[in-house]
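Customer escalation, tier 2.

The customer says the design service returned an amino acid string that "doesn't look like it belongs to this structure." They asked us to rerun it and document both sides in this ticket. The original structure tokens are below, unchanged.
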């Protein structure tokens, strides 16, 4: 009797599993699954473009976009979690027309690559996406290089078609993460300055072809040259919306390099006047070391107080010394201090050495850092002489 009950239970479970499997087969033979790639926007969060998956099946009334690049502003402690790298992103599903309208409004081109998938492969992808959209599965912890809206899309196809998709390694020119980001940041020099400031040494490691797909444009190119079961992965490509080109040139005088070199020249003049007039203009030192100290504190806190993997091992701390923030308030003291004398000696040597080691450390500096480094080194040695 017990054996009979177990057999009946097993049959019931198998029947249930079979029924679920049947219910999961929702797509018709006319269904299409596509990779959508969207051009960069003007806002910093959109400057690297976007990727999503489109599932179109007019026979079933389906035209949905699966978008891994959304988050909930109502999340408790939203800004704290965002800064600390602990904010969960989530998969959202939109109607295709709503998705397209948004990018038309933002004047960002949208490209579609229809994938040449078998019926079973379409079902695999669709079922995976539907499973991912469940409330208990829709969230993931965002990582700039290794787990973002593009890599999630890449992983959908790689997980469901293990060993069946072959990307063309020979066509990929290996670049570092920082080199890949550079063209996107050219129109926004201050954003480039800030991003180069906080990215750690990992940004200068050469990315593999698989890793390069953290950028939507690179994934679009990789998919275009990929093979699925010895046939091209992409069946057809088309432009769904072509943006209007709007030339927005940044004046040379507004770029970080010009601004900081101009400030450095001014500091040189002040230093010359100090030496000639035998005076000490402490306000200049306060501003210089407070500014460099703020930069150092930001880098230090991002590295040690957040979960962002892209900002660790940041060699900019060689010159952006966090303690400058606190020392800046001590430069107004009239009494001589041995502590400050040796502090600024060490600071000057360390800062100057960061320029000397430019070509040896495993991290690339932004050229706009040079005048700041020279400025901090110059004033450090000047204060050492003063004390």
């Amino acid at each position: 009797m017990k054996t009979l009950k177990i057999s009946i239970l097993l049959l019931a479970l198998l029947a249930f599993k079979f029924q679920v499997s049947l219910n999961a087969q929702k797509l018709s033979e006319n269904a299409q699954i596509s990779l959508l790639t969207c051009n960069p926007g003007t806002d910093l969060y959109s400057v690297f473009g976007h990727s999503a998956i489109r599932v179109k099946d007019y026979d079933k009334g389906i035209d949905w976009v699966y978008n891994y690049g959304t988050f909930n502003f109502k999340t408790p402690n939203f800004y704290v979690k965002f800064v600390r790298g602990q904010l969960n992103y989530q998969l959202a599903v939109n109607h295709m027309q709503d998705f397209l309208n948004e990018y038309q409004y933002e004047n960002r081109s949208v490209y579609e690559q229809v994938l040449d998938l078998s019926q079973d492969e379409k079902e695999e992808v669709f079922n995976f996406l539907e499973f991912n959209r469940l409330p208990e599965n829709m969230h993931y912890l965002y990582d700039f290089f290794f787990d973002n809206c593009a890599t999630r899309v890449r992983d959908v196809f790689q997980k469901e078609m293990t060993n069946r998709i072959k990307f063309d390694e020979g066509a990929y020119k290996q670049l570092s993460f920082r080199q890949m980001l550079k063209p996107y940041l050219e129109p926004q020099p201050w954003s480039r300055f800030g991003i180069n400031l906080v990215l750690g040494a990992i940004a200068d490691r050469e990315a593999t072809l698989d890793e390069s797909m953290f950028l939507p444009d690179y994934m679009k190119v990789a998919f275009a040259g990929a093979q699925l079961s010895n046939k091209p992965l992409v069946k057809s490509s088309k432009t769904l919306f072509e943006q209007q080109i709007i030339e927005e040139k940044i004046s040379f005088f507004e770029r970080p390099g010009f601004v900081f070199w101009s400030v450095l020249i001014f500091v040189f003049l002040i230093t010359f006047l100090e030496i000639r007039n035998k005076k000490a203009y402490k306000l200049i030192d306060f501003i210089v070391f407070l500014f460099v100290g703020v930069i150092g504190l930001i880098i230090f806190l991002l590295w040690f107080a957040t979960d962002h993997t892209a900002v660790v091992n940041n060699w900019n701390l060689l010159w952006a010394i966090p303690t400058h923030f606190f020392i800046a308030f001590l430069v107004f003291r009239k009494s001589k201090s041995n502590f400050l004398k040796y502090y600024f000696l060490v600071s000057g040597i360390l800062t100057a050495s960061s320029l000397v080691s430019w070509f040896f450390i495993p991290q690339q500096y932004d050229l706009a850092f040079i005048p700041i480094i020279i400025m901090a080194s110059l004033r450090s040695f000047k204060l050492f002489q003063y004390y």
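Tier 2 assessment: The sequence is consistent with the input. Strands lie at 32-38, 50-57, 62-70, 88-95, 110-115, 139-141, 165-166, 227-228, 231-232, 234-241. The CA atoms of residues 172 and 209 lie 6 Å apart. Sent an explanation to the customer and offered a walkthrough call.
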